Amino acid sequence: MSRTKRMWYQKIYAVCKAQPWRLAITLLFCLIAIYYFKQHEVIIGLLALNVALQALYLGVIPQQRYEQEFVPDVMAELKIEQDMLHVKQRQLKLADIKTVALDQLDKDYAFIDFPFNVYRATAMRFPAEQLPAVKTWLQQHLPQAEIIR
């Protein structure tokens, strides 16, 4: 057995051990599927198998978490040239920027993001002591943008 398969089996086993109702639902719908396959109702049997697999796998496959990239100097990553804002080698039109997410995450870090744009890779985490300078810079260079938390 490959290492990847073994890892999936371990994850499924751990989830079923923590939530035994998953295993009960899976077994119930497997029995229902067998019944309908014997009755030559293939479509209903396949639907029951689908429910059984969903009960087993739903929540086991990890959701991709979006995490901001850390930059030691956020001001070095923000540049304006002509009518474009350059953020981490991405270009955003100044006129299109309506919202900027800016907030302190904890006592050490803050973050900035430009939501509602085509690039999702513009979020950055930076040292919290740079937050006032970034806020001033945004108010000066992007007065039309609403700063949200």
Fold topology:
Blueprint: H1 3-18, H2 20-38, H3 42-57, E1 69-70, E2 78-81, E3 84-87, E4 90-93, E5 99-104, E6 109-113, E7 124-127, H4 131-141, E8 146-148
Parallel strand pairs: 1-7, 5-8
Antiparallel strand pairs: 2-3, 3-4, 5-6, 6-7
Helix pairs in contact: 1-2, 2-3
Main features:
alpha/beta; 8 strands; 21% strand; 5-stranded mixed β-sheet; 149 residues
Can you walk through the features of this model?
With 149 residues, this protein is an alpha/beta fold. It is built from four helices and eight strands, in the order αααβββββββαβ. A five-stranded mixed sheet has the order 1-7-6-5-8, with no helix packed on it. Strand 2 (78-81) and strand 3 (84-87) form a beta hairpin. Helix 2 (20-38) runs antiparallel to helix 3. The protein is elongated. It starts with a helix and ends with a strand. The model has no long low-confidence stretch (mean pLDDT 82).
CA-to-CA gap between the ends?
48 Å
The percent of residues in helical segments reads 40-55%
Strand content: 15-25%
| Tally of helical runs | 4
H-E order: HHHEEEEEEEHE
| Bulk shape | elongated
- Strands of the largest sheet, in order across it? 1-7-6-5-8
Q: Which oligomerization state do the chains in this entry correspond to?
A: single chain
- What's the main sheet like? 5 strands, mixed
Indicate the structural class: alpha/beta
Query: Segments where pLDDT lies below 50 for 5+ residues?
Result: none
Q: Quick check: average pLDDT? A: 82
Number of strand elements: 8
Question: What is the gyration radius calculated from CA atoms?
Answer: 25 Å
